[in-house]
């Protein structure tokens, strides 16, 4: 189990590092957020299968639903910013512009 836990932790940290270092395009940010959510989902399903408590079996499904909502919102924002600004570079986006 310790090898699996080590692999989950390293993949989670790699996704967070990717999120912190590759912030040039909005699409890269969304992919790194999805990698974080996928790692959390895998960790949670492993935890549920190890503990086998009936009260927490719904948690991975809820996390998967939240991840799908986050992905659809992120893609809608990507399409909206691509249409208004013409690109998805994060340097061109500003909160002061309408």
UniProtKB/TrEMBL annotation:
Q: How does it sit in the membrane?
A: Multi-pass membrane protein
Q: What is its main location?
A: mitochondrion
Q: Which InterPro entries match?
A: NADH_UbQ_OxRdtase_chain4L/K, NUOK/Mnh_C1-like
- Gene Ontology cellular component list: mitochondrial inner membrane; NADH dehydrogenase complex
- Transmembrane ranges? 28-51, 58-80
Q: What EC number(s) does its UniProt record assign?
A: 7.1.1.2
Keywords per UniProt = Electron transport, Membrane, Mitochondrion, Mitochondrion inner membrane, NAD, Respiratory chain, Translocase, Transmembrane, Transmembrane helix, Transport, Ubiquinone
| Function summary | Core subunit of the mitochondrial membrane respiratory chain NADH dehydrogenase (Complex I) which catalyzes electron transfer from NADH through the respiratory chain, using ubiquinone as an electron acceptor. Part of the enzyme membrane arm which is embedded in the lipid bilayer and involved in proton translocation.
Q: Which catalysed reactions does the entry list for this protein? A: a ubiquinone + NADH + 5 H(+)(in) = a ubiquinol + NAD(+) + 4 H(+)(out)
Give compartment(s): Mitochondrion inner membrane; Mitochondrion membrane
According to the UniProt entry, its GO molecular function terms are: NADH dehydrogenase (ubiquinone) activity; oxidoreductase activity, acting on NAD(P)H
Recorded hits in Gene3D superfamilies, A to Z, give: 1.10.287.3510
Q: Which family does it belong to?
A: Belongs to the complex I subunit 4L family.
Keyword Mitochondrion part of the UniProt annotation: yes
According to its UniProt entry, this protein's organism is Takydromus sexlineatus
An example GO BP is:
ATP synthesis coupled electron transport
The protein depicted here goes by the name NADH-ubiquinone oxidoreductase chain 4L
């Amino acid at each position: 189990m310790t090898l699996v836990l080590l692999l989950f932790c390293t993949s989670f940290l790699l996704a967070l590092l990717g999120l912190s270092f590759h912030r040039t395009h909005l699409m890269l940010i969304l992919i790194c957020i999805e990698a974080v959510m996928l790692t959390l989902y895998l960790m949670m399903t492993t935890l549920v299968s190890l503990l086998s408590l009936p009260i927490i079996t719904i948690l991975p499904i809820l996390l998967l639903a939240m991840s799908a909502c986050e992905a659809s919102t992120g893609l809608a924002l990507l399409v909206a910013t691509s249409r208004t600004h013409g690109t998805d570079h994060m340097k061109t986006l500003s909160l002061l512009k309408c």
